[in-house]
Records
---
Amino acid sequence: MEVPAPQAGEARRLPAEAAAALGLSADDLLAGQVLQAREGRYLLRLRRAGEACVLKWSHGPEARHEARAYALLADLGVPTLRVLARADAALLLEDLAASPSWRLATPEDVRQPAVGRAVAEWYRALHGAGRRWLAAQPVPPEWLAREADALTPERLRWMAERLGMPGDPLWDLAAGHIASLQAAARSLPETLTYNDFFWANLALSRPRDDAARQALRAVVFDLHLLGIGLR
C-alpha cells in the first residue's frame, strides 16, 4: 500500500498567535522539514535563531495536554527533554538529532541492563514526584485522566475479542461491575503515569567520558498520554 506523503502546507500553518509565542517566523516554518502530518497532528524539524529544534502542534487536545504535561513535570523536577518554548497547543523541543546531551534510543538499547536501570530511575522520579503532588491536590486537574475511567462494557468486550477470550464469563462479570472496579482502583495509592512507553519514545544520554558511560540517564517523551493511575 502506498503511504501518502506528509501534507507540508497544512503542517506549516501554525496559528500566528502560537508562532509568536514560540518565537517562530513564517520563514522558519517554510524552511522546516515536515516529519509527520497525520490526523491533525504535525511534527516539523526546523531552526529557530540558528538552533535546531522540533515543533509539535495540533488542532486537537493532544498538543495542549502535552504542553501542560511538560510544564507539570518541570515544576515537579522530573527530567524531560529541554523545552525551548511552549504555546497553548504547541511545543518547541530540542532536536535529538542535534542535542549534545541526548540521543534517540534504538531497539537494541532496550535489551541492555544499563538502559533498564536508567529507565527505572526516570520512573522512580516520575512516580515519587507524582505521588507527593497528587497527595497535595484537593482535586486533580481535569486534563489528567485515569485510564480506568474510560472503561465501558463495549471496550471490555472488545478487549476480550482482541485477547482471544470472548467466551470467558469473567469479561461479562467485569462489564457489569465497572463502577465498583473504578472505585476500587481509586481507593489504591495513585501517582502520575506515563502510559506510552516504547523505545521510539525514549532518549538516552550521550556519553562524554568514561565516567558518563557508567551513569547512563534516560528520559521519555511524547507526553500526550500522561495521566493518573496505580502506583
Note: DSSP finds nine helices and ten strands in the chain.
---
Amino acid sequence: MKHVVGFSGGIDSQACALWVRNRYPREDVLLLNSDAGGNEHPLTVEFIAEYSATVHPVIHTNAQVQDMGGKSPGKIADLGLKPDDPLTFDLLAVIKGRFPYSKAQFCTEHLKTAPQRRWMLANLRDGDYTRYTGVRRDESENRSDTPACEDDDYFDCPRVNPIFDWTKQMCFDFVKAHGEPINPLYSLGFTRVGCAP
C-alpha cells in the first residue's frame, strides 16, 4: 500500500505529509509536487528542493497539454500543440482564453491534480494506494464540511483528510514541534504560498 500526498510547499500539505510520514514506512510514502505550470514563487521552489533533499523525497510531476483532459481541443489544435508538450500557466490562459480567478480556479486541476493523477496511473498501476490532502475545514466555505475520509472519484482511490479539523496555527505548531523547516514566504508575511500570483 502506497500513501500519496500532494505536496505544494505550503504549511497544510507539509503538516499532512508529516502526519502520514509519522504513521507509515518511509518507502511507502510518496510526496507529489506539481509546480503550477512553472508559476511558483522561487522561494517555494527552493524550499521544496531543500525539503526533498533533507527531509523526504518529493517527486515532481510537470503539467503537459494532455492534462487538459480533452478540453479546448480546437484551440490546442490551432496552436499546433502535442499531448506531451509542457503546459505552463501562461499557455493554459491562452488555451482557455482567460486567466483563472477565485470563482474559476481551473489552474489547480490542469496544472496540479491532473499531472499527479497521470503520474499515479503510470507508476502505481496496481491501484493499491490511498491519497491524503491538507484540506482544512476552516480554509473556506466550500471546505467547511470536509470529512475525515471519503472516496476520491478523480483519483479512483480512498482519500484521507487527516488535518480536516485543524487550524492553520495547529499546522505550524505541529511542523515546528518536529523541527522541520517551513517555507520562508510565511516569515515574509505571506498567508498562502500557492502559485506566484
Note: The chain is about 35% helix and 15% strand.
---
Amino acid sequence: MLACQARANGELSHQLGNAPQAAIDSFSSGLFLILIYAATSKRVRGGVARLREAVRSGLLPSWRLLAGVLGGFFVAIQTSIVPFIGVAVYSVASIAGQTAVSLLVDRIGITGGGPKLISPRRIAAAVITVIAVVVSVWDQLQGVDFSILYISLAGLAGVLVGFQRALNGEINEYAKESYTTSLFNFITGTSFLLIFLVILNL
C-alpha cells in the first residue's frame, strides 16, 4: 500500500507541479475520511477522552501526540522525490531507513512495550527484509539515475515513519482505539503541511 501511495502521490506532485500542495492533498483527504468516521463513532470519542486523561495525569507526554508531524514530513519527502527516482528506488531506500531505525526504537523502548535487545536474529531479519525488497524491484533499478541526495532523503523518510509508528504504538496504548491514533496523526500532519506551505509562499 505504501508503494501505491508513493506512486499516486508522485503522479499528483508531477501533475500539480507543486510537491507541498500534493502532500497536503494526500494528507487532508485522509483527515476528511477519518473525521467523518470519528463524528459517528463513540469508540473514537472514547479514545480521545482516554488520551486527554493520560496527558492530564502525566502518563503520556503531550508532545508525543505530534507523531503525525513525522508522517507529514514523510509524505512531503515522498511527493518531492518519487517523480525523480521512481517508486522502486524510493521503496528500497525508505524501507532500509525504516528497518534500521525500527531496531533502534525497539532497543530504546519508545513503543511502550519495554526495550528489546538487538539480537543477531533481529539484525538478520532486518537485512533479509531489505535484500528481499531490492531483489523484488531489481529489474526496475536498471538504468536509473541514482542521486545521493534523493536516496538519502528517501532513507530519511523511512527513518521518520519508523519513529512515527513507534510513537503511535505508545499513543494507542492509552487511546485503546487505533482510529483515535489515526485521527491525531492526520490532524497534526495536515496542520504541519499547511503551515509549511504558508511559509513557502511568504
Note: The mean pLDDT is 84.
